Amino acid sequence: xxxxxxxxxxxxxxxxxGDKWTVLVILILSEEPKRYNxxxxxxxxxxxRMLTVTLRGLERDGLVMRRVFAEKNPPWVEYSLTELGHTxxxxxxxxxxxxxxxxxxxxxxxxNAEATCN
Length: 118
Description:
65% helix, globular, DNA binding, mainly alpha, 3-stranded antiparallel sheet, 118 residues, 12% strand, 5 helices, Arc Repressor Mutant, subunit A
């Protein structure tokens, strides 16, 4: 089986969407638009810096939209998935299901490989 497309061009995209923080943020935003602190509460153990970096990257790539509500007092920001971002939800859910189904076998294989190396 060959990899579709130009590996050099798709590698950065796969790195972006395969990042654990990206996966979690996309899945959380698939439910509904959320404010920064709502996302931070739902993504356990993410630092403020990492969440900011992740959201900026997703916004830059056109997967997440940032909307400022300046008329609110105080002003606030809401994040939501773009149309492109929504197309990523189904593949990510399939990957999560696969990982959930196979994590015990993968952990066992890793333990066996480690034991063989020692």
